[in-house]
Amino acid sequence: MSGNNPFNSRSDDGGGSITDRDGSPSSDELKGNKRQSSSSGSILPAPERADEPDMSFGEPLHVSVTRGTSRFKSIQRTYSKPLTLDEEEEMMAGDGSAFDLTTWLSGRQQQQGPPFATRVGLVFNELSVYGDNVGDRHIATLATPFWKLAKFAAHGFGIPKLLSKSGDKHRLLLKNMSGVVEDGEMLLVLGRPGAGCSTLLRVLGNHRKTYRRIDGNVSYGGLTPEEVGKSYRGQVAYNAEEDMHHPTLTVRQTLDFAIRCKMPSTRMLKDRSGYKVEFLDTLLDMYGLAGCADTIVGNAFLRGVSGGERKRVSIAEQVASGASVDVWDGSTRGLDSSSALDYVRSLRITTDVLRKSTVVSIYQASENIYELFDKVMVVDEGRQLYFGPASGAVAYFESLGIQKPPRQTTADFLTGVTQLGERRIVPGFEKSAPRSAEDFERMWIESTHRSIVMQQVSAFEKQVQEDARGHEIREFVDQTKMGAESNRLRRRSPYTSTIPYQFIQLFRRETAIMWGSRYTLAFRTAYQLIFAAIVGALFNQLPETTDGAFLRS
Description:
The protein is of the alpha/beta class.
């Protein structure tokens, strides 16, 4: 009977590969290449798979792990600029100890490999975010400016406010959140709508201008948010819920523009044109976009690629940008279960191959999607309820007295732990089980799990300082910039390419956008010409006297 059990979630295909019941790969299989990655952040090949599943929920999967990793290895082998003899001797020169082949290969790959991404990592410690109190806002009327002026004068024209230490009354959006996402890890942020997930992701994505005050520490591999926003903004990428693309461009044109704008300098690549072509083909093949490469992206008004394909275009475009920290805010909205799994599989592959730090918020994630993440963070009412391994979240809340129903997905269980009408209490915990978000936060602060998280935060911050990761990021970005070797101003610029090069690429893209909407442009031109002819005919054969002047006016 066990062989025909319809609730058996995993099975052995006979070749040693564990797959889920719907044919999708298990989390252990997809994370295989992550476990084989070195701590130095170098890109190591993923294990080969003899029979890679290609179906999920009865729908074909469009993302191939084997093809993607093999294509990346091909680019590294073909288009990397070879090291000089002096550089190889510098790597071999050490402290007199025995020769370490792994260290030598890792150093060679870091200096010779193509600049897809560099190890950064993300850490946030005691993060609190304050916003405007919406309840204090009023609808503006004609008398509003005069009322504000009178109020401003009554309060001493703002002078007491400057001398006061209390400041304005702001609303607390996030309270004392801590965690670490190392390079090569994926973090899933779970919470009900309005819990503060989007606020957290926007702050981690370095979109901070819309908030009144932000306390605590956020570090991107040793770089501060101010430094990242000024000189290294390309290392942190935030993708909102809606996909923003030019609808008249094809998938190939969209990715080609992203690759051209972030193409490294000749100091790192020996063949930039060949690198562009090969990298574009790799992205199309890796994310299953080869079949729709020449189809326009489209939008809600113009028919183009499907919603799942448009999501994968966003992922490929973000990979082409070379960001090392990717933040995705509710990006599975509107996708079916198969497309959502394809989307998260793509993020898993990108994180493993390129050693990225990925933070994702997903509503109603399936069990197959949940198993692809390394860590999970539960948020409610702007408070942190849990942060840690995804495999240990259920056990933590069960230790608090909240029982997970047998057929409920883990993500739904974690999202609804504060819902009194949905959750189940373990017998014997009726009085001690937490009831509100404040109770969960208090138990989380007092738990040993938070102590472990704080130790990991301190250890990661110490590791970043010891290995001078911030200096490594600065040197890496300077190497990719065009003209940085001869112009010091280029080193301070957050852009990889020069202004003349950007102008040329933008002109080419604008031409492609106009050509994509050529029929609309032709219709508008014909309409304007016909309308001009009609209006011009009204002035035909009018007398050139004073009477004609009145008619023309």
